[in-house]
Amino acid sequence: MPQPISQSNRIELLDIFRGFAVFGIFVVNIEIMNCAFPNQEVFSQQWESGWSTFIFRVMQLFFYSKFFPVFSFLFGLGISMQAIKMKESGTASITFFIRRMFFLFLLGLVHIIFLWNGDVIHLYAILGLFILIILPLSKRMLLVLVALVLLFPFYDQIASFLFEKIQFSPEYFLANYSSNEITEILRNGPYLKSIEFRIDEYFANIPLLFFYLAPIAFAMFLLGVFFGKNQYHKDLKSLVKLIKKPVIITMVISNLYRVIFIFLLPDWGIYRNEFLRPVFFKLMYLSDLAFGLFYLWLIAYIWHYTPWKKWLEPLKYPGRMALTNYIFQSVFGLIIFSSLGFGLYEKLSPMASFIIAIIVFLIQVIYSKIWLSYFIYGPLEWAWRCFTYLKIFPIRLTKQQLSKDQKHESK
User: Where is each DUF418 domain found (predicted)?
Assistant: First the structure.
């Protein structure tokens, strides 16, 4: 019977990574919560000057397409660490991972229907089912697969072929919604009507989810498994120092390209070349992935080699409750934007959305720290663990554990 991993064996830096990823994910997601994809083009036209333009550039340079890959990488690393420990103890079980991923998939469906259709954890649940197939692959084969998945150029063509074969038309699901109707539903409409729209928008976004985001998620999942198999998490301090030079060189080159792509390339005639344009976008896509992974290296470097470690420590609290906080961000979004709360849908500027994302995350840091002062797990983490192991675990900290944690915090 698989045995749960003790909380005392947690790697603090990995929780900090997760906390940072949860923050970045919300900074990006809140923009989509504020304006659904079908209305994005019209909505953005009213915010083309001043602070809004500045925030848009900040988002392009530091947030868009950076944190989803990081989240996916950390998921792959986490699940591979668990699978490796179970294999070493002889308790690895396909039914265990099916239960684990089934809970995550159900939670993702609930998230889509009742809160927000931008959920990704149901996608992670599907990927997680492959862990026992992927884990035996050689380390070299894992890296080859990462490269193949990232560089494969025909996802759009495959999507078109499959949709034609099964007579599936994503455009159909939003065809009967006008821009004004979408705004009215999400800002003032009855909650049941917003559920209906969320489901329709989810199906309309299937090409984006499964033929753009899924390959990124799978590639980063594989990379996380590669790191797990190499046990890099056990000596991150040495790894960070070892790869310092190639990481910085890659960061400089990729960021130089990103700046050219964002600020210069759109004004050049070559940008509109039918053959080269997809290449330019693929390079931007790879540069964004590289920058997302650079964030993790930079955090690890600060943690191990600078006196600024204490500034990172608060991130471990939302990181230990990453699943709970990810879902709760959508609860905050529902309260902020829908008729169930303040009805601010399409009323916030990019600057206002950015500030609110920071405020909400700071609230999450505070309540996560308070919660973990009394409980061992976040509420959804606890439910996930109980479902996975078919056992009710204690959730409250004992007096002995409380005393131990207080001593640790006082150091």
Answer: 228-391
- Whether 227 contacts 143, CB under 8 Å: no
> Residue 325, SS3?
helix
Q: What is the pLDDT of residues 281-302, one digit of tens each?
A: 999 999 999 999 999 999 999 9
DSSP conformational letter for 4: P
Please report whether residue 94 resides in a domain.
yes
Token pair, residue 168, equals: 């599936």
Q: Using DSSP, how many helices (H) and how many strands (E) does the chain show?
A: 22, 0
- Give the tokens for residue 210: 């499964």
> pLDDT tens digit string along 313-371?
999 999 999 999 999 999 999 999 999 999 999 999 999 999 999 999 999 999 999 99
Secondary structure (3-state) at 374: coil
Which domain covers residue 36, as residue numbers?
Answer: 7-255+306-410
Give dist(CA 55, CA 351) in Å, integer: 6
> Nearest CA to 136 among 91, 101, 95, 84?
84
* Paired residues of 375 in beta bridges: 396
Look up the pTM and report it: 0.94
Residues 6+ apart with CB under 8 A from 136: none
Task: Tell me if 66 is assigned to some domain.
Answer: yes
| CB contact at 8 A, 112 and 119 | yes
Q: Establish if 213 belongs to a structural domain.
A: yes
**Could you tell me if residue 290 is inside a domain?**
no
